[in-house]
Design a protein that fits this description.
Elements (H helix, E strand, L loop, with lengths): L23 E3 L2 E3 L1 H12 L6 E7 L5 E6 L2 H9 L4 E8 L2 H10 L4 E3 L2 E2 L3 H14 L11 E2 L2
Antiparallel strand pairs: 1-2, 3-4, 3-5, 4-7, 5-8, 6-7
């Protein structure tokens, strides 16, 4: 007998369920990997230390503005596709990332990638001076090579 796939039962603010397959169970509720991690953190009282990061593609010189609660894991995943350098970080979550995307929208190339513009580079240099490179979970080399 063929078994139907189980989908994540997490719901967004409008009540729609997540379209991802639910391969994890939390108290009998199927959840996808992303929602499993969040539910587990909520149940255990873990508050991830997320940062907004600025990563530069060493070949195209484009800059990615992203967010991660686990930067040491995220950067090597990015580096599988391209040679990158971590340029700066600042404490923040998805809301700050969206504000930065809005702030630099004139330089957006596609998705989370932006052209290297003077105002973006000034912002990155200010962050480096103010915060250094923030992350949770250990040291991060300045450059990841694939």
């Amino acid at each position: 007998m063929r078994r139907e796939p189980t989908y994540c039962q997490a719901r967004n603010h409008s009540g729609a369920t997540c379209p991802q397959a639910g391969s994890y169970l939390i108290v009998g509720i199927p959840l996808c990997g992303r929602h499993h991690t969040r539910a587990r953190q909520d149940l255990l009282g873990i508050t991830p230390s997320s940062v907004v990061y600025y990563a530069g593609d060493l070949q195209t010189r484009h800059i990615k503005i992203g967010t991660s609660a686990n930067l040491p894991e995220r950067l090597p995943a990015l580096a599988r596709k391209r040679k990158i350098a971590l340029l700066a970080t600042e404490p923040g979550d998805i809301r700050l990332e969206r504000r930065r995307h809005q702030e630099f929208k004139a330089f957006r190339l596609h998705g989370e990638w932006f052209a290297r513009d003077g105002s973006l580079m000034v912002h990155i240099n200010d962050l480096r001076a103010k915060h250094g490179i923030l992350h949770a979970g250990g040291p991060i080399p300045a450059v990841y090579l694939r």
